[in-house]
Amino acid sequence: MNPPSSLTPQAPPRAATGITGLDDVLGGGLPERHVYLVEGEPGSGKTTLGIQFLLEGLRCGEKGLYVTLSETAEELRVVAAAHGWSLDGLTLFELVSAAGLGEDAEQSILHPSEVELGETTRGVMAAVEQQRPQRVVFDSLSEMRLLAQDPLRYRRQILALKHFFARHGCTVLLLDDKTSQDADLQLHSLAHGVLTLGQTSGHYGEDKRFLRVAKLRGAKFRGGEHDFRLDTGGISLFPRLTAAEHPGDHVHQLRSTGHAVFDQMLGGGLTSGSNTLFAGPSGVGKTTTAITCIMAALQRGEKAAYYLFDEGLGTLLTRCRMLRLPVQQYIDSGDLEVHALDPAAVSPGEFSHLVREAVASRGVTTLVIDSLNAYLQGMPGGKFLLLQMHELLTYLNQRGVATLLVLGQHGILGDGGSDVDLSYLSDALVLFRFFEARGQLLKAVSVVKSRTSAHEPYIREFRLGRGGVEIGAALVDFEGVMRGLPAYRGSQALLGDGAPQVTAQ
To answer: What are the φ and ψ backbone dihedral angles of 451, each rounded to 5 degrees?
Structure first.
């Protein structure tokens, strides 16, 4: 007698959507032979998603049928052409044609909803039986809802379509533009899965779009909101970063900043697998110090990335040429990638995707984000920045990346308030300040904290010279730094006094 075989449930086959990020969110695609609801306001990207889904099926050798009540076949071809696609090979079925709008189609004996709804449902069934497609997109349910007029009749027709599609083995996307006043939760219960497309409109800049998987029966998926971009070429979706999914066993190592005195202040240099926050007012030298650290990494043969939100790339390169920092040669060799980003156009998910690609695919080990202030202005709210930045920094730390964050503070002198407090997220905090002494406006630098090394407690004079950063001796007679109004009342020689400088290049 043969032993009983173990009944191990097998995962259902998946239908790839043609959108790489979405397939990742869905755990490989949509389970086949089920009906799914794709809902979103007009302009959120439902039609584009539906076309990509059918084109991916066509690429895999599956027949596709696009049933449209809201748009004409010609309008769909125009949408596809705008993305550089051809709909050849797909069947476009218009349920309402010009002939159906003529006088001969009118009748007055029966209620229009009773006739038109039944004709619409029979038209869909006839098209499926004739074409035998594996994938179907139904656009849109709002017209079906208007034809039904009664919620019970509408639900009964959708349920009939669901069972019909199931018998014919179709994977179906039902598009709904959410134009009804009340949330149609009954439709959620009928669908095997629900994808919600949304967009947020700020006072300035592009709308930010996101996708959320509200439901997917019998399959594990990534929850939460996932940013996506709707552009020429279709939808690009960026799965929400979860640092816990990328564990690492990185061993912390000290890396030189390229300046011996600055290394001493930090307790030996920058620590790999940690992040350092440069905070101070505008013009104090935060960006140049970050570039100096980047140059040291490049000279060691590492790869680096610089994400620029504040100033243009041309301005940054001009500054580097004035300070004789040969940044351009590393950009040309590909060892340094500089991304000038528009904070009003990029979403947090897209930015995380850019960073992950640089680290995971191109081996970047030193990274700068300049500045967090401009990045915050492009976000819908401060809490999003803090949550997203926490996940991103945790991911970078686990991958052994030395991350530098630049945070501008308000004003030149004074308390130096900032748009957001990220000091608790940073492993090390370097504070830059202006101060007055001997009729001059000078600069000072100090390391306020370091979780990974024993940092120096002193405040040192700081300035930018013809080779980058210059750091002087400790200013033991400094007062008022933490109050935001630092002043130096000592007699010690300063960098600009003409006395021998205590610097290391």
So the answer is: -85, -15
